[in-house]
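lol forgot to send this yesterday, sorry. struct tokens for the thing we talked abt
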């Protein structure tokens, strides 16, 4: 087995180490007993067979930095902290309960505080994490630019000409998801429960989910309403901060967290529903990230305690109403931050099996990371590409008509993987889209129930802006509904009655 040796030469030379806030805790580092159970679950170790490319190896590097035996800015340490996908697969199999995510994210933050990046990189990071993710109005404006780029024919011309290839930007552009025709903008809208009200929930809209996957947000609201949930979408919410945290910018991540806590905490709801695995994992960790801020610790913990993934919530609540038949052979891709960070694996499968006609075929290594990991496919394209190819082959081996996932990054990566394999005709869909389609089929092909929100409240506080709407029935659907397109690939239902 190939290994990498840790260079600890010249121990007399002082080493730069962890300092200030957000230091990886020694107690968490020492919890690792180096048993090796994590090795075969770690995507980078599986691909490289290098000890330092494993969770055990990376924790050893952190321990060396903590003890002053390794410089935090050494090439090997920086490389390994960022080669990690932060997929948390190691946590799910660790018998000692090592909380790896709470180590690697602070380690990256420590690096970023001491790393002297080139001016252009600092500008890009500031624009991205503090600008676009910090203000969803800017994010939606940029998404509108992408939408024009895609619909005007410019994207076709750019891809056909190969003009981006000499600059190494063609693969990056290929991961640009198709923007939704209508964005899902949180404006204080609410959705009335269909039938007797069983619960009252708030929907977290997100950034990419609200622009490239707006259809999934609308499908989520409809499915919740059909299951007796009154749904409210608070206006002042923003990005969850997950990408900031993963990129080592915990400070800007905390700013986004506090904004969301303020947006949701005054609402009288039973749960805060999220339909993106990465976002949900981060939302559930607000309490940990803000635990050392007295003003926010209890508020963050209360917020996180209410967060539930849509599959987790529906499985607990229990589906009601008639589900229509969808005759399709499907396979399910476990999103890392749903399966490993949140330990939600059976619930999505149970919901899929509840749909008449669906044949669920398990893929090999369904829980091994697909290589998306936030912006990993941009920052680490070589490793991401290897994992994408591996995932695509495993998915294709099941001969599916539809590949199901529960995270936008996975859906983009899966679609790109299918394209790289030259495969057409296989759809990539979100779990909730399947449920929404099934409910619509049960209601009939010619008459589709349109569950629409009430109008945006004008002069009401966020605590009271939660009035209900009327569930109208129309003969024709408008906009995207539960259909759409992922990376230019058809994501509509497999058939219509």
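and heres what i got for the seq, position by position
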């Amino acid at each position: 087995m190939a290994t990498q040796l840790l260079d600890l030469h010249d121990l007399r030379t002082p080493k730069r180490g962890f300092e200030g806030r957000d230091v990886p805790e020694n107690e968490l580092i020492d919890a690792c007993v180096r048993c090796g159970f994590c090795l075969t679950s770690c995507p980078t170790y599986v691909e490289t067979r290098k000890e330092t490319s494993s969770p055990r190896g990376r924790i050893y590097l952190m321990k060396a930095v903590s003890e002053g035996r390794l410089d935090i800015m050494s090439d090997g340490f920086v490389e390994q902290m960022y080669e990690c996908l932060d997929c948390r697969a190691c946590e799910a199999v660790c018998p000692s309960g090592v909380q790896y995510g709470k180590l690697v994210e602070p380690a990256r933050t420590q690096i970023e505080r001491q790393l002297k990046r080139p001016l252009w990189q600092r500008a890009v990071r500031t624009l991205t994490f503090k600008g676009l993710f910090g203000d969803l109005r800017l994010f939606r404006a940029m998404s509108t630019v992408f939408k024009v780029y895609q619909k005007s024919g410019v994207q076709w011309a750019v891809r056909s000409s190969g003009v981006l290839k000499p600059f190494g930007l063609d693969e990056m552009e290929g991961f640009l998801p198709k923007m939704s025709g209508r964005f899902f903008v949180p404006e204080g809208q609410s959705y009335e429960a269909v039938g007797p009200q069983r619960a009252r929930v708030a929907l977290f809209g997100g950034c990419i989910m609200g622009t490239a996957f707006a259809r999934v947000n609308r499908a989520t609201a409809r499915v919740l309403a059909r299951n007796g949930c009154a749904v409210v979408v608070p206006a002042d919410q923003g990005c969850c901060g997950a990408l900031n945290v993963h990129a080592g910018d915990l400070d800007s991540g905390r700013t986004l967290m506090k904004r969301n806590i303020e947006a949701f905490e005054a609402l009288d709801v039973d749960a805060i529903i999220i339909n993106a695995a990465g976002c949900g994992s981060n939302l559930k960790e607000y309490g940990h990230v803000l635990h050392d801020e007295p003003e926010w610790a209890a508020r963050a913990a209360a917020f996180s305690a209410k967060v539930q993934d849509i599959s987790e919530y529906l499985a607990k609540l229990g589906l009601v109403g008639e589900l229509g038949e969808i005759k399709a052979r499907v396979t399910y891709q476990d999103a890392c931050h749903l399966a490993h960070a949140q330990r939600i694996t059976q619930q999505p499968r149970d919901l899929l099996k509840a749909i008449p006609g669906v044949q669920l075929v398990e893929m090999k290594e369904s829980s091994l990371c697909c290589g998306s990991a936030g912006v990993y496919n941009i920052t680490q394209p070589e490793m991401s590409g290897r994992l994408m190819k591996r995932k695509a082959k495993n998915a294709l081996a099941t001969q599916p008509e539809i590949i199901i996932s529960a995270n936008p990054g996975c859906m983009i990566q899966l679609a790109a993987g299918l394209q790289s394999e030259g495969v057409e005709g296989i759809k990539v869909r979100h779990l909730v889209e399947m449920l929404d389609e099934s409910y619509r089929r049960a209601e009939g092909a010619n008459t589709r129930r349109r569950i629409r929100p009430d109008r945006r409240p004008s002069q009401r506080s966020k605590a009271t802006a939660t009035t209900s709407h009327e569930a109208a029935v129309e003969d024709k659907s408008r906009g995207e509904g539960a259909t759409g397109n992922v990376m230019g690939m058809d994501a509509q239902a497999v058939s219509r009655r």
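DSSP finds 24 helices and 13 strands in the chain. anyway ping me if u want another try
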